[in-house]
Amino acid sequence: MITSLARAVGVTRRYGATVALDDVDLDVPAGTITGLLGPNGAGKSTLLNLLVGLRRPDSGRVELFGGSPLDAVNRRRLGMTPQETGLPSTLRVGEVLDFVGRHYPDPVRVGELLARFGLTGLERRQTGGLSGGQRRRLAVALAFVGRPSLVVLDEPTTGLDVEARRGLWDGIRAFHADGGTVLLTSHYLEEVEQLAQRVVVIGDGRVLADGNIAQIRGMVSLSRVTLRSPGLPDLPGVTRCERDGDRYDLHTPDADQLVRDLVHSGTPFSELQVRPTSLEEAFLTLTVPPTRSHEHPDSRTHPDSPHTHPDPHTRITRLARTDTPTRGEEGVRR
Amino acid sequence: MTSTAGLALTHARFLLLENLRVPIAVLSAALFPALSLLFFVVPFDYADDPAAAATAVAQLAVFGVMSSSLFTFGVGVADDREKSWDPYLRTLPAPVWPRIVGRLLTGFVFGVIAVVPVLAIGAIATSATATGAQLLAGVAALLVAGMPFLLGGLAIGYSMSVKAALPVTQLVFFPVAFGGGLLLPPALFPGWLQALSPALPSRGARDLVVWAAVGTPPSTVALVAFAGWTVLTGALAGWAYRRDQGRRFH
Predict the structure, then answer these.
(1) Inter-chain CB proximity B14 and A99 less than 8 Å
(2) Number of Cβ within a 10 Å radius of residue A4
(3) Does A16 lie at the interface with B, CB-CB under 8 angstroms?
(4) Are A286 and A220 in contact (CB under 8 A)?
(5) A-B interface: how many C-beta pairs under 8 angstroms?
(6) What is the pLDDT along chain B (250 residues), one digit of tens a residue?
């Protein structure tokens, strides 16, 4: 029995001189919702393209339903969304659903899909005449036409309003409740938090972390504390510290505790500011360990070097430790 | 699962639907060769000479096949490649070739759309006549005659962006069509063009169809050149296709 519906093992992919993916491992077990989280350009889409057979890895191995995704047979239980801007503009909504359905042995009826994705009444509308949100819903509906077991969604709700986004989330949850497996990408932590049990953080073409929501939130929900001071003592819980003259820029999962420690230390300071870090800033903390200076950019092309390839699991442990119960869950929330 | 041959038909059907809903594309494919016949042949003397009229009809039929091949494959494929729909279709459980066959069938239908009005006007408004056998031979010759343009269109479509494919197709199309004698019979050309004409793929294509439908023997040089062009454009199309696949899907 196959327990892993999609798998990447030691996959590296370059585009010319750019390394898009660097020795990446990913496993998508049946019945899970896995969120790929990362800033734009992190390599999420490249990884999806490899998994669905649109691209080939330069090295490493990719499996879909236990075989090669380049084999059409192995894509029978896969559902994917097109980019909604690419829908053939002169075809009608019903025709697009019908056309895609003809590639599958037992497609879902068009009427049922229309109802499920809030497209009832639009069957005879040409896709070029749909609103952006309607087009997005049609694109997502296409992933479900063939009764898939694995659905791959690339940024499913970007550009949707709050209501449409929640509707789509409900749809994904219902699919999962029926035993479906989902792999989705997002650059919103909130979206991944709402849907996924498991989060894989990708940055700079590498898997930076792979864990459950609580672990990842501890890693990426950081606060940024800036202040001026003639000199700071060693403060616990600082994951990243930058100094420019008397200006300090500190990242921490628990800003309250940091400020408390700062006051207790008696160090003079001024212009204290606390604000949540953006996901991008948090990723920077993950990419550049606080104890080490910037990597030489060239070292990225040597994936085997242990210095350039920190084990994600040890990093989770290190960062998760700062998320101790004494500080409470609230302390790390943005 | 639908058989893969059935899938090719499905792709052809929806590609046709997609294209037929752009009325201007259909009209320009259908009208241009027919209007050329109406304006440049019908009003003149040689429309009354059965052989000359049949030759003119054959030439314009080649013209229609040439334009529909170059445009559906040159511009159409380039357009397809720029849309994210094409990569999406590759994630469906089907091999690549039903899409390609579907596109070939679409080009074939557009060829029919271009040729039928020419034949109709030729039959009604000129003295051109053809037996069933001549007509059949002519249509078969048209299929062969379209090859270098089909392949050349694919070479353009797989190697260029829409922005480049459109002007390149237009630039290639008209002089080659004219020089090959698709608009005026080559006998009316000035000497230098008469010398150049057999080297063009359109001349061999014309000679083939005129030979099949009217019986005028073709120029050997033109036929050899035509075969050469077919091989060359085939090689170019294969190269462009592989290069494009390598860039987008490797």
Answers:
(1) yes
(2) 16
(3) no
(4) yes
(5) 74
(6) 457 788 999 999 999 999 888 888 788 888 888 998 888 888 887 778 888 999 999 999 999 999 989 988 898 899 888 888 989 999 999 988 899 899 889 989 999 999 999 999 999 988 888 888 999 999 999 999 999 999 999 999 999 999 999 999 999 999 999 999 998 888 889 999 999 999 999 999 999 999 999 999 999 999 999 999 999 999 999 999 999 988 888 7
Q: Check residue A88 and report its DSSP letter.
A: -
- Contacts A103 to B, Cβ<8 Å: 1-2, 7, 92-94
- Phi/psi for B181 (5° steps) reads 80, 30
Give which of B36, B27, B12, B123 is closest to B68, Cα–Cα.
B27
**In angstroms, rounded to a whole number, what is the distance separating the alpha carbons of residues B49 and B59?**
15
List alpha helices for chain A, DSSP H: 44-51, 93-101, 110-116, 132-142, 162-177, 189-195, 213-220, 255-265, 279-287, 312-321
Beta bridge partner(s), residue A210: A200
How far apart are the CA of A298 and the nearest CA of chain B, in angstroms? Answer: 25
Distance CA A280, CA A157 (A): 19
Contacts of A214 (CB under 8 A, 6+ apart): A323
Please report the ipTM that was assigned to this predicted complex.
0.86
Nearest-angstrom CA–CA distance, A332 and A220: 10
Strand partners, A63: A7
Phi and psi dihedrals of A13, rounded to 5? -140, 125
Q: If we measure between CA atoms, which residue out of B47, B59, B34, B41 comes closest to residue B203? A: B59
Contacts of B5 in chain A (CB under 8 A): none
Residues B98 and B105: beta-carbon distance below 8 Å = no
Phi (first) and psi of residue A80, to 5 degrees: -140, 155
Q: Looking at chain B from residue 76 to 135, which residues have their Cβ under 8 Å from any Cβ of chain A?
A: 83-88, 90-95
> Structure pTM?
0.79
- The DSSP-derived string for A116-175 is HTT-TT-TTSBGGGS-HHHHHHHHHHHTTTT--SEEEEESTTTT--HHHHHHHHHHHHHH
What is the greatest pairwise CA distance in chain A? 72
